Each structure stands twice: as C-alpha cells, then as structure tokens.
TrEMBL record:
Protein name: DUF2933 domain-containing protein
InterPro entries membership: DUF2933
Pfam families (alphabetical): DUF2933 (PF11666)
Keywords: Membrane, Transmembrane, Transmembrane helix
Positions of transmembrane segments: 21-39, 45-64
Length: 76
C-alpha cells in the first residue's frame, strides 16, 4: 500500500514552478509591465490606490484565513 514518494521541492509547488524557466520569464514580463505602468500612468495608478487597498482587505481575509473554515483540520 505504500506508494513511492515523489521528489518534492523544498519550498513547495509554487516555488518550484516559479523557479522554472517559464516562471522566471513570467516574473520578468510582469516586472517589465509594472515598470511601464508606473512610468507612463503614474497618475492613474495613484488615483486607483485607495480602491486597490479596499479590495485587498477582503481578498487577504479570504486567502489568509482559508475562508474561515473552523474545523479541526490542521493539514492546510
């Protein structure tokens, strides 16, 4: 019944994907896009900042607290 364990990345699946060549490429593209937006649309980005902070609060609450499931599972 014992299944052979597959090699795990030491920091989890997300970090393993981010360390791949596609993950690095996506990170570089998103960084370049962020710099472009910051340089050419600074006024628009600063005017949207309060709304981004307001939408970040419920998103952080949901994702950081896992939807407030108060069961006794500790393997999340």
């Amino acid at each position: 019944m014992d299944q052979p364990s597959q090699p795990q990345h030491p920091y989890g699946k997300v970090t393993a994907w981010a360390a791949s060549s596609w993950g690095l490429l996506l990170t570089l593209v998103l960084a370049a896009l962020g710099i472009y937006l910051l340089m050419s649309h600074t006024g628009h980005m600063l005017s949207a900042l309060p709304y981004l902070l307001l939408i970040a609060c419920p998103l952080i609450h949901v994702f950081m607290h896992h939807g407030h499931r108060h069961d006794e599972r500790h393997d999340i």
